[in-house]
């Protein structure tokens, strides 16, 4: 019988009504497991955090990655992490980058709290356990299972505030589905980049700055001095207004600046546009190409690299895995 370790981090899947109104995280892994039907798997449950996911930070992710590695070392055949959906995509890429090996690691959550009609937590947890015990899930990297869809950590995004079908992998689609309780996976293998969790992981600060129409760089100008690196969520295929270019170049000369896109899908381009502020112009000025990583995921990768003392060449090389 396969052994699955369930690690709880909080989120809506673990929330109950609070006396003052609204729902707050309160349930632990043991409580969540009670919602599962009998399964052909030995389940262990461990509560790592009981947090709403907007309050999860890098120290919590380090604790989670340690717990995942411990469970794998102790013989788990698969891991399921329950997590708030707001930042699930960042936690998924963090684990993808820091937990090597082929053991399935599946992150799931819920859009509706347990006490609401049609709560989706139990179905998502069930599907996640099924995927975590599937031989076909081995080697695909960290997965996010929501609404019977199986998404790769490098692609998945939350794209809706409240729908139970809030998750998608724009431009690529899910790596598989759970059909009648059985995983049907057609995904391609993980990228395979692993970054050690460096000693500065709790100190490094990487800013995420979104560029907008008429932007004169005011936000970047204020933000840059406070950060060790910046991800620029550029317009379109990786662009900024011409007036912003001198400032972007100045910041990129001092700290790594990764160029991503605010569009939500597709890769930053490399060689199409030639105007001031275009992707060609910015890459020539030393910005690092984010590849297919969206801004939030690019920020996690840059954070891990800087915490491990990576220089600009290593940062560029790491992002090249996602071209
Ligand atoms: N705000 C919640 C959280 O991320 C949303 C959820 O879990 O669905 O913790």
From TrEMBL:
A GO molecular-function descriptor: asparaginase activity
CDD domains: L-asparaginase_II
Active-site residues from the entry: 12, 85
Chain sites annotated for binding substrate: 53, 85-86
Residue ranges constituting the L-asparaginase N-terminal domain according to the UniProt record: 3-184
Pfam family, one: Asparaginase_C
Keywords linked to the UniProt accession: Hydrolase
Domain Asparaginase/glutaminase C-terminal: 205-319
Repeat listed as a keyword: no
This protein's record includes keyword Hydrolase: yes
GO biological process, one term: asparagine metabolic process
Similarity comment: Belongs to the asparaginase 1 family.
Protein name: L-asparaginase
Native source species: Actinokineospora fastidiosa
């Amino acid at each position: 019988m396969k052994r699955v370790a369930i690690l709880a981090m909080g989120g809506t899947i673990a929330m109950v009504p609070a006396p003052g109104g609204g729902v707050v995280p309160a349930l632990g892994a043991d409580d969540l497991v009670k919602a599962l039907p009998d399964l052909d798997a030995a389940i262990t449950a461990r509560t790592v955090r009981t947090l709403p996911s907007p309050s999860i930070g890098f120290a919590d992710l380090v604790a989670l990655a340690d717990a995942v590695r411990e469970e794998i070392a102790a013989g788990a055949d698969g891991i399921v992490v329950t997590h708030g959906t707001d930042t699930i995509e960042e936690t998924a890429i963090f684990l993808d980058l820091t937990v090597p090996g082929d053991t399935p690691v599946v992150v799931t959550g819920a859009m509706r709290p347990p006490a609401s009609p049609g709560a989706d937590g139990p179905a998502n947890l069930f599907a996640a356990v099924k995927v975590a015990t599937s031989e076909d899930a081995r080697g695909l990297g960290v997965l996010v299972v929501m609404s019977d869809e199986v998404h790769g950590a490098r692609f998945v995004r939350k794209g809706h505030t409240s729908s139970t079908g809030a998750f998608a992998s724009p431009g690529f689609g899910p790596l598989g589905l759970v059909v009648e309780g059985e995983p049907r996976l057609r995904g391609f293998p993980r990228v395979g980049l692993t970054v050690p969790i460096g000693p500065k992981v709790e100190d490094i600060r990487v800013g995420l700055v979104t560029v907008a129409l008429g932007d004169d760089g005011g936000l970047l100008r204020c933000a840059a001095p406070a950060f060790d690196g910046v991800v620029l969520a550029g317009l379109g295929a990786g662009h900024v207004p011409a007036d912003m270019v001198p400032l972007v170049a100045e910041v990129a000369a001092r700290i790594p600046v990764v160029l991503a896109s605010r569009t939500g899908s597709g890769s930053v381009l490399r060689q199409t546009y030639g105007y001031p502020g275009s992707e060609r112009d910015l890459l020539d000025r030393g910005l690092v190409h984010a590849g297919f990583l969206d801004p939030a995921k690019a920020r996690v990768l840059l954070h891990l690299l800087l915490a491990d003392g990576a220089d600009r060449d290593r940062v560029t090389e790491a992002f090249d895995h996602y071209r």
